[in-house]
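[stage:ingest] chain + small molecule (flavin-adenine dinucleotide)
[stage:ingest] validated
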Amino acid sequence: MPKNNIINLFAEILDPSSILSGDELKSRFYHIWKTDISLESLCLLLPKSSEEISSIVKICNENNQEIIIHGGLTNLVGSTISNKSQVVISLERMNKIIEIDEQGKTITCESGAIIENIIDAVKDKDLLLPLNFGARGSAQIGGAISTNAGGLRVFKYGMTRNLVMGIEVVLPDGTIISSLKKLMKDNSGYDLKQLFIGSEGTLGIVTKVVLRLYRLPKTRYTSLAVTNNYQSVLDLLKIMEDKISSSLTGFELLWNDTYKKMVDDKTLYNKYLPDNFKYYVFIEYMGGDFENDYNLFESVVLDSINKGVIDDAVIGKDDKEQVNIWGIREDVAVLADERDFDQQFDISIPVALIGKVIDKISKELKDCEGVKTIYPFGHVADGNIHFIIGKDSDDDVLKSKINDIIYNNTKLVDGSISAEHGIGLDKKKYLIKSRSEDEIDLMRLIKKSIDPKNILNPGRVI
Ligand SMILES: Cc1cc2nc3c(=O)[nH]c(=O)nc-3n(C[C@H](O)[C@H](O)[C@H](O)COP(=O)(O)OP(=O)(O)OC[C@H]3O[C@@H](n4cnc5c(N)ncnc54)[C@H](O)[C@@H]3O)c2cc1C
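[stage:predict] done
[stage:export] tokens:
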């Protein structure tokens, strides 16, 4: 069918303000981070309900029309790029909060709801959505579900998968599968929602969700500790787990170069501790006892210094300082702005091996001509380390060299090339370094049986 005719079909089911095409696309993007490249697409559709999405997808299915799904556009793996012949469906208008169940500790909302808005809405009811990552002010819950996002509190609360109780999705043939149950336990057959969590929009469009919430902790303290020895980082983790396990919500690590750059004279962040240590551990404590929590946290940190496990530490003494200390870790993404070009990584490594593996990778990267800056940091308690690698050119040979250094070293220790960001388009070539051929064949089989015409997010993941 001529492409204009399919836009006419959309016009029969959507109001005109929900269809953008031609010059109207110039002000739209496929990614919101570090990009000013306008969106290329046949048209961008802004549906307002699951039923509208279902009707759009039915038209696309009947006409073999490829669809690219847009959430908050914060992914770091090229997932939302499209071409002139693809239709983009954006979930941005489907952002309603439908219900907060205070007793059952759940929230039901549309998938275009921004994560930070959900966090704020439930906070008013003394509840916590523990999803916490730098892009939460732009990322949507549907995007987080489709990528199974992680972040800074996975250690205690798990990945997004652990927070999803119910889901509604539109399949590639337009069928709406709605299972918005608020149940912790439901073993009645296959747990179908798991198919859509983390499959990066290749199997269905998430339209509504029910999320599990927690009681809002009353206290929050953060600390920054330093050491030159990776074993001490592990020893500190053990002490924290032993002494404050239920209140330990974050245990993050910055390497020296990363800390140094985050607190140098040109930034807004305070240099709370000198910049000559190898490791900087950021600890978050969240509890429920105003009277005693600070003293308990302080005594555990002090004890770790006295026993020589860590060399020094600071604890934020008021809310402002807590936020400032944590900000050094949380805002690390600003380091990607330092150079014209960068490559970012998100690998999983067995926790005990992180020290050695990151040393080896860093040395190999330093020897690689064209690499200008190397900033490792990550969620060390989950074994998830990120790299922002700065370069002055976008040369393909250099790009491959850097990818090979990171992924070959990851494979050597049976790690994963993507801990939480997904595969998208950018990492597809390297999927084989993380998953066996049989696993990838099984993924293809699932994709083929749910989306035989390959119209939904084609070419992504597999
Ligand atoms: C500064 C910064 C920090 C970050 N920190 C973290 C972090 O700590 N942990 C982490 O896991 N990620 C992190 N990310 C990556 C990113 O924020 C997450 O992957 C996020 O979940 C993407 O959500 P989104 O709404 O922006 O999705 P998008 O980028 O729009 O889309 C991501 C993928 O999901 C698909 N998709 C989106 N919405 C839907 C839907 N409703 N139904 C079906 N498919 C859909 C898209 O087609 C695409 O394949 C970070 C990103 C930035 C820029």
